[in-house]
């Protein structure tokens, strides 16, 4: 697969650009456990994909039984978002969700180290013609994936096909963060920390880079406004509309699912949000949340229900978690 690379793309030279360099400190004893985990992922990568998926199901069932705190968060989110779902279906959704979470972790080795030809077999993109049409028409492109279990596969797929840029939050474990960053950037592209602000990705978008923008996190009341998400008011960051205007970009929601029969990740690129931006922060944020809902409904068991989606409450409202 040949990457579609803009002619005039150039990184913004900034001390805040994402630093994916190796540090000698990674060899200290505090990281030995992490190195063992990475070695395990390398071993898993060598196994047949069907064996990896069986291991993931077993590991996911164990995680669901052991991690009671996250299980309660998942259950609360599902109760809030799908109040009419029968009890047995809620339990099955959580069971599948944990299995999918384990599978995405075990597949990291494949995303980090497998040859490009192997990744092309394991990740399928549907709807990329929407992005191609926008780029052909001189429009910027903002891809809005939801926080799902196949997110890393989606990032790899986008990076293989398009030159891309994004803003990501570094992980607390610096060694794992290094491997994740290397995996995301192995096909090219640029990453920036949140502290760098929006200027770098706006410049990249105007030069033809596909922007990857995650919009479904709760970042606190100071940076958010409240808009319905599955019928529940959620603290949502009202940036997407202004970002789309600055980038002169179309916004494409995206969801990634895993096909257990073919052992493939399927990255769904949905059509661009119509008439977006709408010119009002609340209306833009409402449209954003509705688009996220539509994407999640493609395969709800793949969404990150373990996140505290409704952590921030307003006007003294009781906490959900």
UniProtKB/TrEMBL annotation:
Subcellular location: Cell inner membrane
Transmembrane annotation, as ranges: 32-55
Key words, A-Z: Acyltransferase, Cell inner membrane, Cell membrane, Membrane, Transferase, Transmembrane, Transmembrane helix
EC annotation from Swiss-Prot or TrEMBL: 2.3.1.-
GO biological process, one term: carbohydrate derivative biosynthetic process
Chief localization: membrane
One cellular component term from this protein's GO annotations in UniProt: plasma membrane
A GO term for molecular function: acyltransferase activity
Protein name as it appears in the record: Lipid A biosynthesis lauroyl acyltransferase
Organism (species): hydrothermal vent metagenome
């Amino acid at each position: 697969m040949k990457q579609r690379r803009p002619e005039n793309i150039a990184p913004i030279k900034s001390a805040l650009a994402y630093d994916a360099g190796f540090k000698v400190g990674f060899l200290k004893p505090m990281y030995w456990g992490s190195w063992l985990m990475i070695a395990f992922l390398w071993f898993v990568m060598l196994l047949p994909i069907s064996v990896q998926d069986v291991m993931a199901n077993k590991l996911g069932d164990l995680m669901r039984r052991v991690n009671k705190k996250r299980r309660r968060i998942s259950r609360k989110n599902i109760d809030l978002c799908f109040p009419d779902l029968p009890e047995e279906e809620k339990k099955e959704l959580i069971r599948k969700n944990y299995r999918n979470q384990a599978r995405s972790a075990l597949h990291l080795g494949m995303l980090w180290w497998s040859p490009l030809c192997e990744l092309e077999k394991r990740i399928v993109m549907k709807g990329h013609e929407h992005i191609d049409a926008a780029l052909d028409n001189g429009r910027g492109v903002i891809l809005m994936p939801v926080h799902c279990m196949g997110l890393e596969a989606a990032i790899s797929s986008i990076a293989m096909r398009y030159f891309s840029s994004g803003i990501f939050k570094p992980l607390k474990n610096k060694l794992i963060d290094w491997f994740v960053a290397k995996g995301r950037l192995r096909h090219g592209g640029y990453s920036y920390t949140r502290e760098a602000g929006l200027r770098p990705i706006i410049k990249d978008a105007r030069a033809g880079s596909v922007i990857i923008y995650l919009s479904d996190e709760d970042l606190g009341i100071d940076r958010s406004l409240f808009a319905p998400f599955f019928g529940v008011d959620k603290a949502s960051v009202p940036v997407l509309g202004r970002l789309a205007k600055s980038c002169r970009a179309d916004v494409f929601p995206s969801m990634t699912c895993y096909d257990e029969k073919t052992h493939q990740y399927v990255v769904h690129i949905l059509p661009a949000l119509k008439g977006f931006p709408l010119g009002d922060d609340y209306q833009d944020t409402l449209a954003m949340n509705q688009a996220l809902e539509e994407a999640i409904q493609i395969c709800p068991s793949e969404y990150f229900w373990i996140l505290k989606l409704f952590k921030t409450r307003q006007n003294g409202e009781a906490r959900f978690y």
